[in-house]
């Protein structure tokens, strides 16, 4: 008979493979949903209505003009610019405006029950996000190196961080990056999860594999695709909140 420790390790690995398979499926599903939404969405103008008043506006007008530009043209922008505007899409506002397919994708990606009304899904996601934020603060205070390998794998899985085929050192780097973006740069967890869903189905290139021992690369393209996929009414509400 196999030792129980071997069975436990094999069972845990099998579970991680299954989770990654579900996440790849959700990535494809969300991308297809976003493509359908973009086809149904009226063409946006190349600039916002207040785009000519950048000097008179302030942060709200600048942000509105920037979002209008990247969402209409799809032009790649710097990571710093993306991070600068991402904080306005607060979790409560974003969840209230996401479509059901997006809510279901988040639930399944995070291992949350995806059955129920939209309100119930939002409630479950909100609770999970609150737990992750509290956990991030605790890990930040105690240090990532204090986590055992099983604890590290669990923390990474709950945040959509790849664990299959990744060394503990690599997972610690990815978790450290998540915490820096979430707590240090104030990127809402909903945006981080949505961007990870979009990036989950992307194959790992040979270059990325070769860089596996280096610093993790922030997927700015996935974050921009996430921002571009957000409903127009969400973008308008977030910008209005900024102006208040």
From TrEMBL:
Residues 43-55 have a biased composition (Low complexity). Residues 25-34 have a biased composition (Basic and acidic residues). Keywords: Membrane, Mitochondrion, Mitochondrion inner membrane, Transmembrane, Transmembrane helix. Its main location: mitochondrion. The keyword tRNA processing does not apply. PROSITE patterns: LETM1_RBD. The keyword Membrane applies. InterPro entries: LETM1-like_RBD, LETM1/MDM38-like. It is a single-pass membrane protein. Residues 18-232 form the Letm1 RBD domain. Residues 1-63 are annotated as: Disordered. GO terms for molecular function: ribosome binding. One of its GO terms (cellular component) is mitochondrial inner membrane. Transmembrane segments: none annotated. It is found in: Mitochondrion inner membrane. One of its GO terms (biological process) is intracellular monoatomic cation homeostasis. This is LETM1 domain-containing protein ylh47.
């Amino acid at each position: 008979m196999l030792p129980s420790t071997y069975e436990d390790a094999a069972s845990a690995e099998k579970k991680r493979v299954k989770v990654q398979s579900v996440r790849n499926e959700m990535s494809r599903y969300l991308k297809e949903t976003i493509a359908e939404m973009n086809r149904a969405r009226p063409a946006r103008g190349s600039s916002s209505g207040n785009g000519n008043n950048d000097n008179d506006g302030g942060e709200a007008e600048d942000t509105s003009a920037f979002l209008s530009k990247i969402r209409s043209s799809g032009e790649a922008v710097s990571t710093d610019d993306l991070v600068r505007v991402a904080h306005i899409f607060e979790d409560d506002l974003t969840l209230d405006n996401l479509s059901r397919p997006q809510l279901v994708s988040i639930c399944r990606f995070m291992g949350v029950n995806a059955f129920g009304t939209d309100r119930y899904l939002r409630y479950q996601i909100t609770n999970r996000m609150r737990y992750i934020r509290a956990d991030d603060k605790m890990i930040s205070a105690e240090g990532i190196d204090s986590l055992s390998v099983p604890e590290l794998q669990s923390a990474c899985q709950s945040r959509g961080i790849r664990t299959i085929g990744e060394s503990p050192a690599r997972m610690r780097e990815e978790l450290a990056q998540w915490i820096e973006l979430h707590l240090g740069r104030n990127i809402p967890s909903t945006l981080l999860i949505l961007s990870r869903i979009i990036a989950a189905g992307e194959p790992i290139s040979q270059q990325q594999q070769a860089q596996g021992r280096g610093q993790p690369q922030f997927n700015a393209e996935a974050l921009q695709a996430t921002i571009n996929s957000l409903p127009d009414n969400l973008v308008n509400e977030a910008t209005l909140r900024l102006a208040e």
